[in-house]
Specification:
GO terms for molecular function: ATP binding; GMP kinase activity. This protein is α/β, with parallel strands linked by helices. The protein has a domain of 138 residues: Rossmann fold, CATH 3.40.50.300. It has a 5-stranded parallel β-sheet with strand order 2-7-1-8-9, with helices on both faces. A 4-stranded mixed β-sheet has the order 4-3-6-5. A hairpin with a 2-residue loop joins strand 5 and strand 6. The longest helix is centred in the last third of the chain and has 16 residues.
Length: 206
């Protein structure tokens, strides 16, 4: 019997493109997916649970994990560290679960360096004008900040070549269907199936 392992899928794209919305809609439809739980040095808040919302660690523990390459990516934000623990991702994959990591472009490039066997999906808006409208619709940012985000988005879109797949987020339903097709396609890849099948054949021969 073939024991199918999971795959790490990295969903990335410019700020405001709708990564979180697509990821949530995807998880509502697919129960085998595991969301990658991040690690942080910030204090646990009321109602949060360790190992559910985040893995909570001290600054010293986090820095030790950086030194031992135990994180797939990390960043510092407002005095606290945030990152993706390698062990959690590998354990979920070994157990047969697909792990989804929703992350900004810079973080995705760190993951690609540390975990190149992952599958990298780039979510883009139908146009920069549409991206501008989405950011404006949030109603939380000034015109200067919106202009800065769009400038950064142009740079990030130029990094599309580093990804395995590109999905245009013209509508949530369409984007989710395309990501689901990518997941199915990756599980049917010859290299992946052959490796698992050969392992199963060796077990039979024993």
């Amino acid at each position: 019997m073939i024991e199918e392992k999971g795959i790490l899928f990295v969903l990335s794209g410019p700020s405001g493109v709708g990564k979180g919305t697509v990821r949530k809609a995807l998880f509502e439809q697919d129960t085998n997916l595991q969301y990658s739980i991040s690690m942080t040095t910030r204090n646990i808040r009321e109602g949060e649970k360790d190992g559910v919302d985040y893995f909570y660690r001290t600054h010293e523990e986090f820095k030790e994990m950086i030194d031992t390459n135990s994180l797939l990516e990390y960043a510092e934000y407002v005095g606290n560290f945030y990152g993706t623990p390698r062990q959690y991702v590998e354990e979920m994959i070994e157990a047969g679960h697909d792990v989804f990591l929703e992350i900004e472009v810079q973080g995705a490039m760190q993951v690609k360096k540390n975990f190149p066997q992952g599958v990298f999906v780039f979510l883009i808006p139908p146009s920069l004008e549409e991206l501008k409208n989405r950011i404006q619709d949030r109603g939380t940012e000034t015109e200067d900040l919106i202009a800065s985000r769009l400038q950064e988005a142009r740079k990030e879109i130029e990094m599309m070549e580093a990804y395995d797949y590109v999905v245009v987020n013209d509508s949530i339903d369409n984007a989710v269907q395309k990501v689901q097709a990518i997941v199915q396609s990756e599980h049917c890849k010859k290299e992946r199936v052959a490796k698992q099948y050969n392992k199963a054949l060796l077990e039979v021969e024993k």
